[in-house]
Specification:
There is one protein chain. The protein is an alpha+beta fold. It has three domains: about 30 residues; about 190 residues, 2-Layer Sandwich (Bacterial polysaccharide co-polymerase-like), CATH 3.30.1890; about 140 residues. It is built from 15 helices and four strands. A four-stranded antiparallel β-sheet has the order 2-3-1-4. A hairpin with a 4-residue loop joins strand 2 and strand 3.
């Protein structure tokens, strides 16, 4: 009973129930609207979050002022360095390349250093496409150094007056050459306007010359070709002379030795008055034998006459006279065979007999024959060296004459301006990143 009384007491009245019903309906409708808003349906109202104040948009001038207040001095310095180190120099470089830099023309030529060698290529294409040997490659590198050397610059300056050819055009002081420069500065400028490229595989060398006038660039390129040809010919002649010099010295030494041997043999023959002592000895022996035979016969006749006649008869006197003459002649011939016809000959050669003269003659004849053989061998070596030197002779094979440009190829205005801009930007970026890196670490 008590519970029923409490329930009856808590039960709302009909008026209160009528008021609560619309409140519940309104809460239910609001919940449905929120759910529809979350599901993204069109026409769903936006429910503001509780306790959230609506932010009014700030004025534009106030926003800029706020942003400026937040900037610091380092930002201003970075912007200033960008303008001063990147934007302004890049603009000046672009203006210089576009309106101030003078036009330049190039002249190119191609040649190769070749050697005449047996068994090489016989056609003109094979001569230019065959691989260059080690000797010609070394000569090509030597020629490259010569083209870019002070000697070439001095020769070109004497002929063309480089300060006039490459004088400043208008306001283009960057690509022009100054006046009264030393040879070192001219060499540095020469290496800027003259480029040499060498292909080791084919042995072809390409030379490019830049100048402000196309005809002048062609003339300078032709001058380089002429000087290179003179250098190669000089090197070839020098190498040929080096190869032949030793052989020529041997020939001269052999010729002097042969002349000396022949002179000694001639002096011997003049003094001995005989061509060969061996032949003279043979003739003398035959003559002595004949005289002895005739003397023996006369002695036999004299003995026969004495047995039949007296000593005072004319026949016996004649026989005795003839025998005495033969004995005297036989003595002379034997003396000639032993000591020589003249005492001077025996005194000069130091040997009074035939054996000594024969030994002296054989020594002189042996020296003469050896000198002749040595001289003949030296002549053969000289001829062989001359053939080898001719086969290894170098020459400059020019197959592209210096060209004449009709349009300026240099300077590359857009590329140079772009490279300057990128380079400045790269350096500036590295500087900024380095600054922030140091700042973060600190």
């Amino acid at each position: 009973m008590a519970a029923s009384k409490d329930a009856a007491a808590n039960k709302p009245s009909p008026a209160e129930a009528a008021k609560a019903t619309p409140a519940k309906a309104d809460a239910k409708s609001k919940g449905i609207e929120v759910l529809e808003g979350l599901l993204g349906r069109e026409g769903a109202p936006v429910i503001p979050l509780p306790r959230r104040k609506k932010i009014e948009p700030a004025k534009k001038v106030g926003w800029i002022a706020g942003r400026l207040k937040k900037l610091r001095w380092r930002h201003a310095i970075i912007g200033g360095t960008f303008l001063g180190l990147v934007a302004l120099p890049a603009t000046l470089a672009s203006v210089y390349m576009a309106f101030i830099a003078a036009d330049q023309y190039h002249s190119s030529t191609s040649f190769a250093v070749r050697s005449i060698q047996g068994g090489g290529a016989t056609d003109i294409l094979g001569m230019f496409t065959q691989s260059s040997g080690g000797s010609t490659a070394s000569d090509s590198y030597m020629l490259m150094d010569y083209i870019l050397s002070e000697r070439m610059v001095a020769a070109a300056d004497r002929k063309f007056k480089l300060e006039d050819v490459y004088a400043t055009r208008g306001l283009d002081y960057f690509y022009g050459i100054g006046s009264g420069l030393p040879i070192e500065d001219k060499l540095a400028y020469w290496r800027d306007v003259v480029s040499v490229n060498f292909d080791h595989a084919s042995g072809i060398m390409q030379v490019t010359v830049k100048a402000f006038d196309p005809k002048q660039s062609q003339e300078i390129a032709r001058f380089i070709v002429d000087q290179s040809d003179s250098l190669v010919n000089g090197l070839s002649a020098s190498a040929r002379n080096d190869v032949l010099r030793a052989a020529q010295d041997e020939v001269l030494a052999g010729e002097a030795r042969l002349s000396k041997a022949r002179a000694a043999l001639r002096d011997y023959r003049d003094k001995s008055q005989e061509i060969s002592p061996e032949e003279g000895a043979k003739i003398a022996v035959q003559l002595i034998g004949g005289l002895e035979e005739e003397l023996t016969k006369l002695n036999a006749d004299l003995a026969t006459a004495k047995s039949q006649m007296s000593e005072d008869t004319p026949r016996i006197r004649v026989l005795k006279t003839r025998i005495a003459s033969l004995e005297q002649q036989l003595t002379i011939e034997r003396q000639r065979l032993g000591t020589g016809e003249r005492n001077a000959v025996a005194d000069d050669f130091g040997s009074p007999d035939v054996a000594g003269r024969i030994a002296e003659f054989e020594e002189l004849e042996t020296e003469r024959e050896f000198a002749e053989r040595a001289y003949t061998a030296a002549l053969g070596s000289l001829e062989k060296a001359r053939i080898e030197a001719n086969n290894k002779q170098r020459y400059l094979a020019l197959f592209i004459e210096p060209t004449l440009s009709e349009m300026a190829q240099y300077p590359a205005r857009f590329l140079n301006a772009l490279l300057v801009t990128l380079g400045l930007l790269f350096v500036w970026g590295i500087g900024v990143m380095g600054y922030y890196n140091i700042r973060d670490r600190a």
